[in-house]
Amino acid sequence: MKVLIVGASLSGLRTAQALRAGGFEGGITLAGAEPHLPYDRPPLSKQVLLGTRTRADADLEEAGTLADLDLDLQTGVVATGLDVSAATVELGGRPVGFDHLVIATGATPRRLPFGAGLRGVHTLRTVEDCQAIRTAMATGSAVVVIGGGFIGCEVASAAAAQGLPTTLLEMLPTPLFQSLGPQIGAMVAGMQRAAGIDVICGHGARALIEDGHGAVAGVELDDGRRLPAGLVVVGVGVVPETAWLESSGLALDNGVVCDQRLRASGHDHIRAVGDVARWDHPGLGRPVRVEHWTNAAESATHAAAGILGSDEAYGPVPYVWSDQLGHRIQTLGLPQAGDHLEIVDRQEGPKGEKLVGLYRHDGMLAAAVGIDFPGRLMKYRELLERGTRWEEALDFAAGLGA
Ligand SMILES: Cc1cc2nc3c(=O)[nH]c(=O)nc-3n(C[C@H](O)[C@H](O)[C@H](O)COP(=O)(O)OP(=O)(O)OC[C@H]3O[C@@H](n4cnc5c(N)ncnc54)[C@H](O)[C@@H]3O)c2cc1C
């Protein structure tokens, strides 16, 4: 039996590892577009950008460990099409057959509709992006980060930590508004301002200003304000990498549409994992696509188990962490716009106030967020796993605080 995994990053590699750990002895091809061995992305907006870890530290596994997996590992190879009835993928210009296909092609940063090709304007997804941003930061020029999501906040944090004049621009009322809501967003904005970051919310960029020599010189806001910048980092979200599947007949809708077992709908031998998979979450009762590290790893393990014969549905409690300004923010579950947030625990910690907040949705505990309080936050995982009424969650919180 032959498994073909397209996308050789976290979720692709973890699928291959889980197959071998589960005793799979057939052929595994792991093929990816990047010219590198699989590497980890979280350090790219944190330690590698700050220079406290090197690019090599971000490798997911050492070459020897990869060799032990006995993979047909192909780097620098792009998949351009899938023929479902022939069970082949067009890989590097030739058809490659499979018994099982795992789609692990992740996501690609959204770009601005203006300023294409200007030097000094970057998104952050790959090691090349990270190295380019780091080089630009070393020149000491002013930085404008467009987009206050996790990656934008982390880049702003890294820029400010290096003493660069830094502005964070966010269209919504606060940074992290979509992921964590207005209250946590306002706290994070406060932390950013205290670190010297100029946080501008409720405004978008309408143009990039050119210096006359093909490089960026600044950002023009929708109210006409002009912010000087030698480096602009655009962090306005990602789109799932499904362009290569468009003529395949697979259902695509903000990712590869999958059933509760991560199988592409209607196809028993095709699965999607990681950032590219949009699956029917059995616990949440709605389709979700999760762009976080832990889901990439866990969905890979789950898909591998499915190939090896497991029939379990995939219903994890989503988890994300983010390190910024010396603080660790963590979330369990997926807060939705309009969820009520209640801070249930606040204590003085070594880095200032540490806290845990709970989100309510339809009378149920929907998610939990922590700032610098990992041990306390993790106590809510079990409640989220089994589904817990809001009052019970508050009683539980009160018991912890006692
Ligand atoms: C800078 C950064 C920081 C992050 N920090 C955190 C964090 O702190 N916490 C957290 O929870 N998550 C974080 N994440 C998110 C996390 O890294 C992703 O969820 C994870 O990388 C997803 O893994 P993946 O394998 O699904 O996709 P990807 O990592 O996107 O990998 C997909 C791979 O497929 C390849 N590919 C795409 N199309 C094709 C094709 N047609 N043919 C062949 N190959 C193809 C791509 O080149 C890529 O190598 C961060 C992400 C970034 C970019």
Q: Would you kindly provide a written description of the structure presented here, covering whatever features stand out?
A:
Helix 1 packs parallel to helix 7. The chain starts with a strand and ends with a helix. With 402 residues, it is an alpha/beta fold. Strand 20 and strand 21 form a beta hairpin. It has a five-stranded parallel beta sheet with strand order 3-2-1-7-19, with helices on one face. The chain has a five-stranded parallel beta sheet with strand order 9-16-10-11-12, with helices on one face. A five-stranded antiparallel beta sheet has the order 22-23-26-25-24, with helices on both faces. It is globular. The longest helix has 18 residues. It has three domains: 177 residues, FAD/NAD(P)-binding domain; 124 residues, 3-Layer(bba) Sandwich (FAD/NAD(P)-binding domain), CATH 3.50.50; 76 residues, FAD/NAD-linked reductase, C-terminal dimerisation domain (Enolase-like, domain 1, 2-Layer Sandwich). The chain contains ten helices and 26 strands. Bound molecules: flavin-adenine dinucleotide. Flavin-adenine dinucleotide binds next to helix 1, helix 7 and strand 22.
